Amino acid sequence: MPLRDMTSADLDEVMRIEQRVHRSPWTRGNFADALDSGYVCRVYEDAGEMLGYTVLMPAVDEAQLLNISIAAEHQRKGLGRKLLGEIKEIARGLHMQRLLLEVRPSNVAALGLYRDTDFREIGLRRGYYAAASGREDAIVMECLL
Ligand SMILES: CC(C)(COP(=O)(O)OP(=O)(O)OC[C@H]1O[C@@H](n2cnc3c(N)ncnc32)[C@H](O)[C@@H]1OP(=O)(O)O)[C@@H](O)C(=O)NCCC(=O)NCCS
């Protein structure tokens, strides 16, 4: 899997993908902050084309998956599953015991991916996300590494 470190030079292309695939996209500043904070920011590319990217925040012994995105034109080809597999390897390499994330109940694709890759639901944050009408809960999921 061709994964490499994300740099600030990637942010134009990252933002193009981010704005197309997320209902509440991160801002350029969110990515810049993640890079500045030393989070694990990786780009998944093939022959110079960005297929997706991820941002992982390792803490003491658990890592929070803050962003995983596959470009709209490359979704549903197994790439998200592969990228998540790589993320788990990176987290294991950093001696993390578990991977945590939050997901909207309406994000059928992401929920399908996580349920299919050994994540389980461990909680609910009520009204966590802004939604078209009001707020939407976040499902909290974990995967033991
Ligand atoms: C979630 C996401 C990363 C999945 O990536 P992907 O490359 O399209 O997913 P894959 O092709 O690897 O699919 C893996 C599994 O996920 C599930 N899945 C993926 N897309 C799905 C969809 N549209 N509907 C239902 N299940 C879906 C399926 O279980 C699938 O396995 P299958 O193809 O054998 O049925 C991608 O849809 C995405 O980038 N979405 C926008 C960003 C986002 O919501 N990120 C997560 C929250 S931060």
Question: How would you characterize this protein structure?
Answer:
This protein has 145 residues and is an alpha+beta fold. Helices cover 30% and strands 39% of the residues. A 7-stranded mixed sheet has the order 1-2-3-4-5-7-6, sandwiched between helices. α3 links the parallel β4 and β5 (98-103). The chain is globular. The chain binds coenzyme A. Coenzyme A is lined by residues 21-22, 67-70, 75-81, 103, 107-110, 112-113, 116.
Which stretches are low in confidence, meaning pLDDT under 50 for 5 or more residues running?
A: none
Share of helical residues:
25-40%
Largest sheet properties: 7 strands, mixed
**Number of structurally distinct domains:** 1
Named once each, the bound ligands are: coenzyme A
In short, what is this structure?
30% of the residues lie in helices and 39% in strands.
Task: Summarize this structure as a short list of keywords or feature phrases.
Aminopeptidase; binds coenzyme A; globular; seven-stranded mixed sheet
Topology summary:
Layout: E1 3-5, H1 11-21, H2 28-36, E2 40-46, E3 49-58, E4 62-70, H3 79-93, E5 98-103, H4 108-115, E6 120-130, E7 135-144
Parallel strand pairs: 4-5
Antiparallel strand pairs: 1-2, 2-3, 3-4, 5-7, 6-7
Bound molecules: coenzyme A.
Residues 21-22, 67-70, 75-81, 103, 107-110, 112-113, 116 line the site of coenzyme A.
